[in-house]
Amino acid sequence: MKASSKALRILEGGFIFLGLLLLVVFAVAHIHRFVMLRAEMAKFEARQLESTKEGIAGTEATDGPAHNADLHRAQNPDYSLWSNRRTKLHQASLRKPVESLAVLRIPALHLEVPVLDGTDEVTLNRGVGRIASTALPGKGGNIGIAGHRDGFFRRLKDVRTGDAIELATMSGTDIYIVDRIRITSPTDVSVLRPRTKHSLTLVTCYPFYFVGPAPSRYIVEASLK
Question: Which pTM was predicted?
Answer without folding.
Answer: 0.67
